[in-house]
Amino acid sequence: MQTLRPHVYWAQRHGEIYLRVELSDAKNLTIRVEENTLSFKGQGHGAKGQDQYEFSLEFLKLVKPEVSHRSTQRVVNITIKKQDHGWWHRLTMQERKPLFLAPDFDRWLDESDAELELREKEEKLNRICVESRIPKDPYLGLKKGYLFMYNLVQFLGFSWIFVNMTVRLFILGQDSFYDTFHTIADMMYFCQILAVLEVVNPALGLVNSGIVPPLIQVFGRNFVLFIILGAQEDMQNKPVVFFIFYLWSTIEIFRYPFYMLACIDTKWALLTWLRYTIWMPLYPLGVIAEAVAVIQAMPVFDETKLLSVPLPKALGTTLSFSYALHVYLVLMFLGLFINFRHLYKLRRRRFRTKKRKAY
Questions:
Q1: For the chain, how are helix, strand and coil distributed in percent, rounded to 5?
Q2: Which stretches of 236-341 are assigned E, i.e. beta strand?
Q3: Smallest Cα–Cα separation from 190: which of 149, 227, 230, 158?
Q4: Catalytic residue among 95, 290, 303, 328
């Protein structure tokens, strides 16, 4: 019986090396580490049929002599612990990769992703330790029920806005742009007033999130809704209102059901992807639409003198509210940067990309 080499795939973490040997129905296995060299021998069905297979690997750095392995019907999985924790730029002492060796892309992580995975494991262990010492919250069910109902009500409200605007767009076409505010404003008022709870909830510890991102969004939307649009009738017939309301509602009909299902520990992969992806084009577009509304409102506030600040008679003029809108425009795009960065970090944490590198 001739001796052959099986296909071997490898991956690493900071403290371990993983090898996957493509050998079906493996038997008579001999796996050991001597002088930092792994020796593998065994019989089974490999790349060239039923035969005797063996290989050896001299590792780049020191490893512990203990080897753990587990055989399945199709492969042999081997785990070797590194002597010192650290990241190796290659597996073997020899610079040229053995022909039978290749990266295991099913388990492959680059160094930064491996560090992130390690931190997540440590955080999970710390959380378990802390939770084991902290008594269970007797009001947990009540809190989840409240959050579920809040997200359900918001989902229904924004769904009504989205469906209503979509139907009107199909029936009336561009004519629906000009009376959007008078048709939708009452429901939007309700939803945006209720959205203030998204600042209150983290402040009370009902949700594990920061206060700043929801504060920026809730304040920005309510400023546009109540001050820019609601306080000036001349702004309520402009087409930009349609785009603002439509972009807001499109984002929320995916965000609120995601949080609603999270309250009952339920996940839906497609909804999760939409919640963490659809905001990327829509959120900046929404801010741009809001900025257009602010710019269009400046001459209106100059003309009506609404919210203008009277100056002393010696100056003989008033300080127009449009100057404050210039400052608000700068703050609006600063808030966009802060929230975009925050949401992108959440998305990256949720969908950690596995970068495939060469050996």
A1: 55, 20, 25
A2: 309-310, 318-319
A3: 158
A4: 290
Burial per residue of 262-273, b for 16 or more beta-carbon CB atoms within 10 angstroms, e otherwise? bbeeeeeeebbe
d(CA 48, CA 71): 19
* Residue among 352, 347, 343, 349 at smallest CA distance from 210: 343
Say which residues have a Cβ less than 8 Å from residue 175's Cβ, sequence separation at least 6: none
Q: Are strands 75-82 and 63-71 parallel, antiparallel or unpaired?
A: antiparallel
Residue 246 designated active-site: no
Task: State the pLDDT at residue 357.
Answer: 38
Q: Say whether 290 is catalytic.
A: yes
Three-state SS at 20: strand
107's CB contacts (< 8 A; 6+ apart) are 11, 18, 20
pLDDT tens digit string along 301-357? 999 889 888 877 666 677 889 999 999 999 999 999 998 888 888 888 877 643 433
Q: What is the pLDDT of residues 162-218, one digit of tens each?
A: 999 999 999 999 999 999 999 999 999 999 999 999 999 999 888 888 899 999 999
Q: What is the DSSP string of 175-239?
A: GGGTTHHHHHHHHHHHHHHHTTHHHHHHHTTSSSS-SHHHHHHHHHHHIIIIIIITT-GGGTTST
Match 């839906």 to its residue by tokens.
268
How far is 244 from 18, CA to CA, in rounded Å? 52
Task: Please tell me the distance from the alpha carbon of residue 242 to that of residue 181, in angstroms, as a whole number.
Answer: 8
Convert 121-138 to b/e letters by CB count within 10 Å (16 or more is b): eeeeeeeeeeeeeeeeee
The pTM of the full predicted model, rounded to 2 decimals, is 0.61
Q: Does residue 14 contact residue 86 with C-beta atoms inside 8 Å?
A: yes
Q: How far is CA 10 from the centre of its chain?
A: 29
Cβ–Cβ under 8 Å, residues 147 and 201: yes
DSSP string of 319-330? E-HHHHHHHHHH
Catalytic residue among 53, 150, 283, 328: 283
Cα angle value 40/5/29 (rounded, 5°)? 30
User: Using CA atoms, how far apart are residues 101 and 87, in angstroms rounded to an integer?
Assistant: 19
